[in-house]
Amino acid sequence: MKALVYTANEEMTYRDEPEPQAAPGDALIAIESVGICGSDMHAYLGHDERRVPPLILGHEAVGTVLEGAVPGQRVVLNPLITCGVCDDCLGGRQNLCAERDLIGMYRAGAFAEKIVIPERNLIPVPDGMPSAHAALTEPGATGLHAIVLAESALARPISETRALVLGAGSVGLLTALLLRDKGVGEIAIAETNPLRRDLVREHCQLEIFDPREQAPAAQAYDCVFDAVGGAVTRDTSITAVRSGGVIVHIGLMDNQGSMDVRAMTLREITFIGTYTYTPVDLRATLAKLHSGALGDLAWIEQRPLSAGADAFAELLQGQCAAPKVVLATGS
Amino acid sequence: MKALVYTANEEMTYRDEPEPQAAPGDALIAIESVGICGSDMHAYLGHDERRVPPLILGHEAVGTVLEGAVPGQRVVLNPLITCGVCDDCLGGRQNLCAERDLIGMYRAGAFAEKIVIPERNLIPVPDGMPSAHAALTEPGATGLHAIVLAESALARPISETRALVLGAGSVGLLTALLLRDKGVGEIAIAETNPLRRDLVREHCQLEIFDPREQAPAAQAYDCVFDAVGGAVTRDTSITAVRSGGVIVHIGLMDNQGSMDVRAMTLREITFIGTYTYTPVDLRATLAKLHSGALGDLAWIEQRPLSAGADAFAELLQGQCAAPKVVLATGS
Which run of H or E residues covers position B279? Predict the structure, then answer.
């Protein structure tokens, strides 16, 4: 089969790879669409020691079952493979499973024509749903999971709060769209890429600004979603959040800098690290995307998998306006 | 009246001070007992820019109403003076009030024979309760507030969790005693002062260890209460807490060091800054102390207010075993 392989730092190679072989309990999937995630970019830059080349990256995938329990069924893949039997798995917190693995990390990912994955990791796609839309399930569920954690920590229902989202990549933008769907009236997004700001304004009718030109209002937001996860955005989060408010830390851009823990303590701020999603988050997000509640999703940019190397290069240079580039096989 | 005045760095002076004058809405209180808090020590060392000498420190106070609505009533003082009309005050989160003040910070504290304080800051003491016990209300409520915040963030009831408490000063020890009263079966306390460890073992039958000799088990605790609040204890908290667990940051020892935010994110850790308590926390804690649920409290050390300067000096040198020194007037 053909696959887009991470072969070296800043090098993606579209080439022939061996056909994947399904083990008992696995399904064989023909990939239709797969999104490029920030963590794929991170790996591409050689910044993720967990992703060692040569490796097929990609985990935001939609396809059709070739071999398995439901041949012909279109499915979103839950890329997080967990043991299914520990307290965390059985308690509905599968994302915490100590045995967890992710496709495109220690095992082959979805930038390929085919993949094998456990049957229990398949989520049926509603009839007629475009595969590029369904490919947003994974980043959307990351946002939904962050929101669910915030809701458990907020003193008031999230619909009564003011929210700030840092970063309008797909996770940040989908977080903002999910917040709007939950009735949050005041949502501001900070994004430094001007191309992306224009695209979000045009397609999503959301308030978006450049935080380098205009700092977010101080102590003004009940909840801040940091979809970047850098020293600068952590500082911004602490400054912008209200006393008694909640910061949800989603991104993993860097591990630098210190945090003003004294201010966080005196102002009783809750800082929540959030990692991925649960199966329930994925299903709920897929349903939201299909319902139209998150808009027409016209901000997705689609490209052929065979041209994936160029997409990575352009993303690296900030030339992509789209919050999400989805690669499609067979085109 | 006589008062113990913070007059300069590492200098407390027992001397005559002007009689306090009650404004409308205030009560005049004759102080019986007042505890020495870590924040008083912090001020004494010149490390708290909010507390400027000359200043009467002290905010863990019990006394009797001399002038006010209920003359003769014994009362615990709620030292946190708030506006009473903002959303936070009316929403039961008085500790977040933007107008908040604390006795012994910007206004005169309770290391004195008398104090004035708003009537609404008085909490009646049950008949016959020793004033030294009632003086633990404030540090105990700080612990209870931290526990209540942890409970809102934990996935399971706190009685099913394993808890680690860092520091066995009064807040740490009272947090551990409150956790035991809530049915938490596994509670470990880390404390570096050997005198204090011996006293806690003798009086409280709690597991207590020296974290410099024996590091806490890694990723073993559902909740960690950091009653120290230093760079070292923050690192320990992140190492010791389970994935999906909760760190409650109570202490304000320093604002140094960085935190491993990457680990906090990948392991979905919630970090909660907690500041003081609400009136409800204070009343609930006073009732717990009076009921005997927190033990016989024989670990309190009582000294005369007139000898307070020596107590501060001994506390500074680590010569005090007692988690709480309470100063009594009139002796």
Answer: helix B279-291
Whole-number CA gyration radius for chain A: 19
CA distance, residue B144 to nearest chain A CA (Å) = 14
**Contact partners, residue B78, CB within 8 Å, separation at least 6:** B121, B122, B123, B279, B282
| Distance between start and end Cα atoms, chain B | 14
Q: How far is B166 from chain A (nearest CA, A)?
A: 16
CA-closest candidate to residue B44, choices B33, B35, B53, B31: B53
Could you list the pLDDT tens digit for every one of the 331 residues in chain A? 999 999 999 999 999 999 999 999 999 999 999 999 989 999 999 998 999 999 999 999 999 999 999 999 999 999 999 999 999 999 999 999 999 999 999 999 999 999 999 999 999 999 999 999 999 999 999 999 999 999 999 999 999 999 999 999 999 999 999 999 999 999 999 999 999 999 999 999 999 999 999 999 999 999 999 999 999 999 999 999 999 999 999 999 999 988 999 999 999 999 999 999 999 999 999 999 999 999 999 999 999 999 999 999 999 988 888 999 999 997 5
Instruction: Determine the residue of chain A that is closest to B227 in CA distance.
Output: A265
By Cβ distance, the residue of B96, B269, B274 closest to A273 is B269
- A54 preceded by a cis bond (ω within 30 of 0): yes
ipTM above 0.85, yes or no: yes
3-class DSSP assignment, residue B123:
strand
**Predicted model pTM:** 0.96
- Angle (CA) B171-B150-A143 rounded to 5° is 145
Q: How far apart are CA B243 and CA B223, in angstroms?
A: 10
CB contact B256 to A (< 8 Å): yes
- B86 in contact with chain A, both atoms CB, cutoff 8 A: no
Chain B contact present for A94, CB below 8 A: no
**B294-to-A129, B137, B182, B213, B288 alpha-carbon distances in Å:** 60, 12, 10, 28, 7
Encoded tokens for B89: 């005050």
The residues near B94 (Cβ < 8 Å, ≥ 6 apart) are B80, B82, B84, B88, B100, B278, B279
Q: Look at B153 and A95 and tell me if their CB atoms are within 8 Å.
A: no
Nearest beta carbon to residue B255 from set A262, A269, A275? A262
Helix residue spans in chain A (DSSP H):
38-44, 87-90, 131-134, 137-153, 170-181, 194-204, 231-240, 261-266, 279-291, 308-316
- Work out the minimum CA distance from B54 to partner chain A, whole angstroms: 24
The string of DSSP letters for A9-26 reads: TTEEEEEE-PPP-PPTTE
A47 touches chain B (CB under 8 A): no
Partner-chain contact A271 B266, CB within 8 Å: no
Residue ranges of E strands in B39-100: 55-56, 60-67, 74-77, 80-81
Touching B: A residues 261-320, CB under 8 Å: 261-262, 264-275
Residue with tokens 């600068």: A232
Check A243 against B88: CB less than 8 A apart. Answer: yes
- Cα distances (angstroms) measured from residue B103 to each of B15, B57, B110, B275: 19, 8, 7, 15
> Contact, A116 vs A20, CB < 8 A?
yes
Cβ partners under 8 Å of residue B24, min gap 6: none
- In B, which residues are within 8 Å of A234 by CB distance? 261
Q: Which of A142, A261, A277 to mutate to test the interface with B (most CBs of B within 10 A)?
A: A261
Strand partners, A118: A26
Using CA of residue A122, residue A126, residue A130, residue A136, what is the dihedral sign?
negative
Determine, for residues B270 and A267 on separate chains, whether the beta-carbon distance falls below 8 Å.
no
Q: What angle do CA A105, B234, A150 make, to 5 degrees?
A: 60
